[in-house]
Amino acid sequence: MTDIILPEQFSLSRALAQNKPKKVLARRWRKRSAVVALLDDDHVKSASLLMIQRARREGDPWSGHMAFPGGRSEKHDRNGLATAKREMHEEVGFDADAKEHRHLNAQVIGRLSDLATPKRSLAKQMVITAYVMKVEERPALQPNHEVENALWIPLSYFADPENREIRPFKIAGDWHDLPCLHYADDQVIWGMTLRMIDEILRIQGYQIPNMVGRIK
Q1: pLDDT tier at 216 (50, 70, 90 boundaries)?
Q2: Domain containing 36 — which CATH number?
Q3: Cα–Cα distance, 11 to 5 (Å, whole number)
């Protein structure tokens, strides 16, 4: 009798290779942005995820938010992956393609579904694509002025439903009760970033609790 292999026993690389990410139909005609979800291991139970806390700036809708390294595409970027890598290099000082980092064996192991920003958050909708990368050891980080903090958070923390809660967030002047994870101090992961993390976990076979937010 053959033992049944559960999805969470697969490596992340294998699970992502079998995944078919969804694409926003009008992505070519909208502004684009890309981020890197950088992992230091190939299994949820032992991997940590690189996240940044954005610098606090008046007038910036993402001021102080937890996110992945990334940003808007530029005309000279070859594609979304080039955008994500360039922004990661600029924000945390890690150039995945640099010769001096070859020993880290940085690899793209998959991509996630496109996400369109809510109409209420930006004047024009933007399509964001996340690329999942893996390194064999953590690179030295040098955050720039756009980043207040860069830290590694265990994926197992996100996979534990006990760490989830509902909190009020102010978006475009309105208050919303939304699902989130409070990691430490003011480091709260929610919104599109949490949706990306949850997609990684779902691909790996984890059940994500259905915590429906509401508008106050």
Answers
A1: very low
A2: 3.90.79.10
A3: 11
